[in-house]
Every structure is written in structure tokens, then in C-alpha cells.
Amino acid sequence: MNKKPLIALKGISKTFGKVAANKDIDLDIYSGEIHALLGENGAGKSTLISIISGVYMPDGGTMEWNGEKVSFSSPKDAMKHGVGTIYQHFKLVEAMTARENILLGQKGSIFRNDKKVDKDIKTIIETYALDVELDKYVMDMSVGERQNLEILKVLYRGAKLLILDEPTTVFTPQETEKLFKIMRKMKEQGCALIFISHKMDEVMEICDKITILRKGETVKTLEKTDTNPKELTEAMVGRAVELSIKREVCTSKDKLLTVNNLVVLNEEKSEAVKSISFDIKAGEVFGIAGIAGSGQKELCEAIAGISNVKSGSIVFEGESLEGKNPREFVKRGISMSFIPEDRLGMGLVGSMDMVDNMLLKTYYAEKGFLINRKPVAEKAKAIKGTLDIKTPSIHYPIKYLSGGNIQKILLGRELSSNPKLLIMAYPVRGLDINTCFIIYNLINEAKAKGTAVLFVGEDLDVLMQLCDRIMVMCDGASSGIIKAEDATREKLGLMMVGADE
User: Fold this and answer.
1) Number of domains the chain is built from
2) Which of 339, 421, 353, 354 is nearest to 387 (CA)?
3) Residues spanned by the domain of 476
4) pTM of the complete model
């Protein structure tokens, strides 16, 4: 490993209004190294990688690239030096082929030697063992193939430092292992990698060094071999944290929800959910696993009365729900809460504060012309304290808060109505480990009160620890329902791609 870092950050600071996102951060990244960035939501990770990749200019501090002082004024400028960033949401054009995406925006396209270009691209594919078909359209690619294409794209453009932001969020265990093989190959070839993940087991498996951020500051940098998940979590949070999910066995036999031969159409009017059947008992956590886009979103929205059902039935406490909308649910006393995948948009309104977002659920039930905001404000204060929501005030617009705090507000609002059925679509996606365990504990508290929980998740280990039963979805259909104690990561992963009988 080189003694001189590929990139060195010294005293980097960045402020947005009154919020100091980064304060005097020091960070050295070396070639041939996989370096993890860990921290709670709002710790400053996203701001820091935005500075490294040229999206933001720092307010203070310096950056050095191979020992020379640099200042990236744009992502294009950062890319010229060799910084490539792969975000959670891929920057690909779906209607183009892999080759077209790689060459998009490149100079000299008129006089380009296509044979040489293909040869150069194929050399990179072979060197890094990337699985990419150059003539395949992005719209026809799996999530894993798209990520390989993103990696190939930045390598072709000369990336020497690759930043991976939550790269395994929607991966099967098999796809994650393939990505790790590519990362190790890149490390062998002398690339530097910054790996951002909330999955502690992945950090411990793939990384060499780990830097922890807390409240915008660098806490410490550790060698992976000298630390453990408990120490890392305590450094992130600033105190001891209990990292275990205690699953109480569901003994109820009362079926609260029964779904039978359900077919749901997506926005393109094709079948997103294909003849699915299952039931959920009172006090049961029923998990749903599957590759992203396998119909989980449409299934949740159909049960919550948002998506139209083509055929089949949804029965809640003996009452059919098909054709009814959420407002009718409230009028008819159907006790259900829905935490959608889209927190800001479908779940909450970003420009509103906590109080107004709490009111969204009940304002039309208020009698008279004036809305009594006082009890809602008291409830918002209680939720802020109970869930440790970090906000300057309950009257502060929520769009300025971190993802974890926004999710806590949504959870607090939905749980405060004590629902009999709680539908949760990816409730911990992108959240730090401490916030995740707060949410798992809330689910168990709701379960103990007899609430049935439909939990759509990505982390297979969490699904096995938290849920009583798990249904695996593949291409809109059910691959089977399995008891959590009988499940393994490998078995669930195979079911997710339809490879298990």
C-alpha cells in the first residue's frame, strides 16, 4: 500500500444555514484499500462524499490528490481527476444499451473508433470480472447488472477512487457476494474504494479501514482487524447500544387479514401481483422478502386501499376491502396504518412541520370550521421525546431533517392511532443501525399489544430475527411462505430468484 494517500481531506467543513453538516473532518484514503464510512443518519456522510465527488464545494479545509492540492468545482471536474461515484439511485438511461450509457457525454463521438472503444471496454470487463452485455438495454437488466454497468461506466472514464453509496440495499445475498468479488478485484488492481453501508456484517466482511462520523465530526479511524460491530456502533451513537432483536412467539390463532388469489395491476396496467394468497394473525409479524420491484409495493398499496385490485379478495376482520379507499377505511372503523416506501411524497409533506403532518391523518374528522391544534401539538411533543426525534422544533419543516428522523415522525404518527394492522414497506431503508433497532423495538411493542404487522424488508437476517413467517415474492408471485426458524439466507436468496422449488 502506498504511504502517500490517493486523496487526503484536511479540516473539511460545510454548513447549510445554521446546520454544520461537516466540521473539521480529516480523512485519508489510500490506493488498494476499501475504506468504510459509518455514522448515524445526519452524521455528515452524504455531505462528505458530495464534497469528494464535486457536488459541493467545502466552506473550509483542503483536499489533496496524490499529494497535490485540488479543488473540485463540479462532478465532471472530480471525474477528470479520477473520482467515480455510484449512488443508491442509478444514473442510467433505461432506453439505451449498456454501450450507449458508457459512452454518453464522452467527447469525440463523431470520429470515434468503435472497434477500439469496444476493445477497451471489454478489457475492463475481463480485468474486473464484470458481468455486462454491451448490447443489452438497461430496462431489461436486473439490479445487479445495472450496478455492474455503473461500475464499468466510471472505470471506463478513468476512476481511480470509487465511492459506493449503500450499494447492496436491494441485493440478494448472491448479488452482494458478486459485488464483493468485483470490489476485491478492484482493490487488487490498485483502486481505492469508499464503501458506505448501514449493514455492519458487510462492513466487517469487505473493508480494510473504517472511519466513523458523528454529528458532522470524525470520531476515529480503525483497522477492521482491531475492532468489532459493538465498538463501532457505540462510537457511532456515543453510548452503549443493545443490538439484539427479541422475537416473542405469536400464539394467536385469530386471522386478522386474509388475502386470497390477489391480482393487482401496476401503472403500466400489467400484473404486478399475480394471484397471491396468505393470511396474518393478530400479534404476528409477517415478513415479505424479494428483489426490489417484485410486486411488494403494489401488494402493500392494494391492502391499504391505494391501488386498485383486478381480482381476488382482501378481507380484514370479516369485511372485504376491495374497492374501498383509505378515507372509507377510517369512516368504517377499519383500524389500519400504512408506512409507505416513499416517506416524503406518499407518507409525509416535506414543507409541513410535525404538527401539520400529524393533522393530515385526522383533519377531515374535525367538527366545525376551526381545527383544534393544541392536542395534536401535545402528541407531536410526546412522539418527539419518545422516539428521540432530532429537530429544532415541532414547528420546523421536516424536509430539512435526516431520513431517520423523518421516518420516526411517520412511524410515530401511524403508531399513535394504535392500529390493529400495521403495513410497513422498507421502514428501515437507509437508516443507521441505532434508528433501525429503535424501529424493531417499536414493532415488537406493537406486536405485544396484538397488532398484526406486515413487514416488507431487505435485510434477510432482520427478517429471520423479527418475523414469525416470511413470504418470498419473485416477479409478482409468491415463491412460498416459510417459518422464520426454518429460513436461511441461502434458501431465501434462492427463493427470491425463483430457483427454489
Assistant:
1) 3
2) 354
3) 252-335+419-501
4) 0.71
